[in-house]
Design goal:
This is Type II toxin-antitoxin system VapB family antitoxin. Pfam families: VapB_antitoxin. The protein contains 3 helices and no strands. The protein has helices at residues 9-19, 24-44, 57-62.
Length: 64
């Protein structure tokens, strides 16, 4: 899909330098994927303290 948008060139240049990616498209796609993952992680936080743990964590650590 082709989309025309205005993006701060310095922001794009900084992102390219920070990531080592080669194109603006790669930087934008990585940024969008990262944003989606962060939002998904926020949803996971809602389960904190609400799930029952079964198992022996120490045993899992020593037998893996």
């Amino acid at each position: 899909m082709t989309t025309n948008i205005i993006i701060d060139e310095q922001l794009i240049d900084d992102a390219i330098k920070a990531t080592g990616l080669k194109t603006k498209q790669e930087v934008i796609e990585l940024g969008l994927k990262t944003l989606i993952k962060l939002k998904q992680q926020e949803k996971i936080k809602a389960y904190r303290g609400n799930l029952k743990w079964e198992g022996n964590l120490e045993d899992m650590r020593t037998n893996s």
